[in-house]
Automatic annotation (TrEMBL):
Pfam families: Glyco_hydro_10. Residues 1-304 form the GH10 domain. This is Beta-xylanase. GO terms for biological process: polysaccharide catabolic process. It comes from Ephemerocybe angulata.
């Protein structure tokens, strides 16, 4: 990826995977950028007001530093994984101060050590309306301005992203995102990138290149931040062959788009994916099987990269 002018090919990591036999060597040898899966989320870092717990997040940062890896911080403001005390806040002034304190403390701790932050995550419902989170209920759309402005002050060098799923095909959610980014830009909010999570369903992948281009039309960086392609059960060789082609298509979509800086997978082995437990009709979403063997999907990514190399040389 770096040889093609991109910044990284990445994955998720946390205190469990950095000691998991099979996973850790793949993480060290195949990936350069890491997103903490759980330990940097609000409920884990500040479970009680003013009580910050950095033991696990520090372990992830230390592992990344020891292995020469970079970190994408994930995530500062999200409607999920927030403790009950935050959700129970009932007035604007208190919530504003709480958001500032949390972002200043977390971003400030890792100032200069994080490439990018997912400052706000999943603000939209599928119909393009705002989620009725405590942040939106009390502060309206301006909670996004607050989060980005606070994050920039805490680490002026970090890239600041808005992250969202379901922007892989035309529809109200990506339309809402483009309109929001335009408004943020008109208010001079310091936003640098859009993260498209890209949790995909095999058989519904073809629109990804076109939608990435729409996101890039904002002039911001774009990144594929949580890639997996789930396959309908029962999984067979024919479906895996299709998944290979789809991984190649998505990889090429980023390679072909100058403002796409990189791709992050959402897991190493199929056995550790969130898909089977959350969406039990689907399975096999990643590049390695349950025994950490490379699937044909891995070849799809590799072939996209090799093809790009030949084009660059030729």
């Amino acid at each position: 990826m770096a040889a093609k002018g991109k910044l990284y090919f990445g994955n998720i990591v946390d205190t469990n995977t950095i000691v998991e036999n099979g996973a850790v060597e793949i993480l060290k040898t195949e990936f350069g950028m890491f997103t903490p899966e759980y330990s940097w989320k609000w409920a884990f870092i500040q479970p009680n007001q003013g009580e910050f717990k950095f033991e696990d997040s520090d372990k992830v940062m230390e592992w990344a530093a020891e292995n020469g890896k970079q970190i994408r911080g994930h995530t500062l403001v999200w409607h999920q994984n927030i403790p009950g005390w935050v959700d129970a806040i009932a007035d604007q002034a208190t919530l504003t101060q709480v958001v500032r304190d949390h972002i200043n403390t977390v971003v400030g701790r890792y100032q200069g050590r994080v490439y990018a932050w997912d400052v706000v995550n999943e603000v939209f419902n599928d119909d393009g309306t705002f989620r009725a989170s405590v942040f939106y209920r009390l502060l309206g759309e301006e909670f996004i301005d607050l989060a980005f402005q606070t994050a920039q002050a805490a680490d002026p060098k970090a890239k600041l992203y808005i992250n969202e799923y379901g922007m892989d095909y035309a529809g109200p959610k990506i339309d809402a995102m483009l309109a929001l980014v335009s408004r943020l830009q008109s208010r001079n909010v310091p936003i640098h990138g859009i993260g498209s999570q890209t949790h995909l369903t095999s058989g519904r992948v073809d629109e990804v290149p076109a939608q990435l281009k729409r996101l890039a039309s904002t002039g911001l960086e774009v990144a594929i931040t949580e890639l997996d392609i789930r396959v309908k059960r029962p999984v067979d060789d024919e479906k895996l062959a299709q998944q290979k082609q789809e991984y190649e298509l998505v990889t090429r979509a980023c390679l072909d788009l100058p403002s796409c800086v990189g791709i992050t997978m959402w897991g190493v082995s199929d056995k550790d994916s969130w898909i089977p437990s959350t969406l039990p009709d689907f399975d096999a979403p990643l590049l390695w099987d349950s025994g950490f063997g490379r699937k044909v999907a891995y070849q799809g990514v590799d072939e996209a990269l090799q093809m790009a190399a030949r084009v660059n040389l030729g």
